[in-house]
Amino acid sequence: MSTFNLLDEPWLPVLDAGTDLRDAPHHPVRFREISLRDAFTRAPEIREVYSDAPLETVALYRLLLALTIDVYLSEADRDDWMALWRQRRFNPTDLECYLAAHALHTHFDLLDPERPFYQHPQPHSSTEGKDPAPLAKLFHAEASGNNATLFGHELDNVPRQVVLAEAARGLVCAQAAALGGGVSKPFNFSHAPLVGGDIFWIRGRSLFDALLLNAPPDNAARMVKEGGFDYGEQDRPNWRQEDLPEEHARRPAAGYLDYLTWQARRLTLVTMEENDRVVATGVFLTQGDKDEPAVGIRDPLMARVGSKTKGVFPFGFRANRALWRDADLLFRIADPNDEGAPLTFQWLDRVAATDYPAEASELEAQGWLVDAFGLATEPGKAGKVAFWRHERFPIYHAFLDDPSRLPDLQRALEFAEEQRGILRGAARTVAEYLLDPPPPGSDDRPSPDQKTVSSLIDGLDVESRYWAMLEPFFYELLRDLARQNEAAARTERLWQWAKDIYDAARRSFEAATSMLDQNARVLRALAEGQRRLGRVKAYREHRKTLQEEPS
Questions:
Q1: R_g of the chain computed on alpha carbons
Q2: How far is the C-alpha of 7 from the C-alpha of 14, rounded, in Å?
Q3: pLDDT at 330 over 60
Q4: How big is the CA angle at 342 (ends 336 and 345), to the nearest 5 degrees?
Q5: Longest pairwise C-alpha distance within the chain
Q6: 451 near 534, Cβ under 8 Å?
Q7: Which of 350, 93, 49 has the alpha carbon at shortest distance from 218?
């Protein structure tokens, strides 16, 4: 009987340094695939999980996180967490005892006839007599059915075979990030947990660091709170659940481990043997469990934003808007039901005020980077991916530890938004004078069709140029605001930022209009636009207080 056990077979894509990264944090790495056992045995040597597909990467992280919590950190105990951090590695014996105690070895076999990993051994009865779906259904990057081609050019009528390592990654990703929309049994397709909010994954120097930092000893970060989940025996990861359901149900998650390994789809791989190896050729796919979340429960790895109309909801990427423009949200430590940073960030803040000063200094000294993963669906088309994204963002403890610094950051972002509005106003003036120029010598205002004006502004593309030019200046500002302890020094840095954003606006305006013809009409339009390209109000008022001429 063929087997492909994920505990032993290489299938996890990682960047491997081959040495302990706490001792050599900048050691070169190489790409390779490793088994689940190797991921835990060699976690201090692994820089990160690394897949070309961001959704696959974060889905694999969540799988590893569930296993870490269940094996090594089943109780949210601060001393246990710190003892493991000091130990600097996972004890492989603990993993083997865990697998033996629960008789789990075969539950990680992709081809097990009774309990195939992340699958059901039998397709749902509604698929009887039907052909299996193409494997493209497991991969968001591939075209399938109504899903638009983003990065792949596969067709449903030209199915491809997939090696089992790739099929395993597709199964994990599909269970975590499958899109709702469409007819299925026992009920229609619904979104998997990763749809609808971005995941913020704290990076350490190694995979070991990251798994601990994203499993802090904090009840709120384990979905345990008053009126929420009761973390205990009922909460198990998928591979430790006693029986597979014959029919999937509408139900709330039983706890964090159940949630991290949620089976959003009932999947059954179709395989064949070819050239002395087994490959996957298709998949039977129907709706799995349908989540009915408990009131007030939030994903600890997601940030939350609020609005007057929608209340508080998970933060998600927006098209044409980089993550740094919402940076103040990521430094706002909030109560579990409020808007603000992911709940996992609270441990980064609290550890500095605990009884572990040496470890707190170590954590601060290594610096923080956070990986943000997310996808968005087409407006009004829940089953279609509009885009997905992976961004990396620095987190500074000074902002987490001292909320009084946040107004400086918020003000900086407000300056940038105000300057964007000024820039767009200048671009609008150019467009109006180009489309409906007044007669020579006339001071009349143009009155062109505003839809045409908006189209021309979009064509000039001044705003995206502005944000792209401004981004490196922002990261310098963020670093400087974190380092400055004096309020006066931070204020002075804000005035430098105000000059930076004006310079970015001016350069983006010049770049956007440089290809226009240089005739009299264009030159007048540019002159009128430049007259309106001023600085933000706060900076102008600041200059007045210094009794200098306004710029």
A1: 27
A2: 15
A3: yes
A4: 105
A5: 90
A6: no
A7: 350
375 three-class SS: strand
Q: What is the C-alpha to C-alpha distance for residues 8 and 19, in angstroms, rounded to an integer?
A: 21
Whether residue 190 contacts residue 290, with contact meaning beta carbons closer than 8 Å, is answered with yes
User: What b/e string do you get for 444-472 counting C-beta neighbours within 10 Å, with b at 16 or more?
Assistant: eebeeeeeebeebbeebebbebbbebbee
What is the phi-psi region of residue 276: left when phi exceeds 0, alpha when psi lies from -120 to 50, beta otherwise?
Answer: left
Q: Which residue bears the tokens 């201090």?
A: 44
Reduced to 3 states (helix: H, G, I; strand: E, B; else coil), residue 365 is: helix
User: What are the residue boundaries of the structural domains of the chain, listed by start?
Assistant: 12-397, 403-545
Q: Is the pLDDT of residue 154 over 70?
A: no
Q: Do the Cβ atoms of 478 and 396 come closer than 8 Å?
A: yes
397: phi then psi, degrees, rounded to nearest 5: -60, -30
Question: In this structure, what are the phi and psi dihedrals at residue 133, rounded to the nearest 5 degrees?
Answer: -75, 155
Pick the CATH number of 403-545 from 2.30.30.100, 1.10.132.100, 1.10.260.40, 3.30.70.330: 1.10.132.100
Residue 142 has a pLDDT of 53
Which residues are paired to 147 by β-bridges?
A: 144
113 upstream amide cis, omega within 30 of 0: no
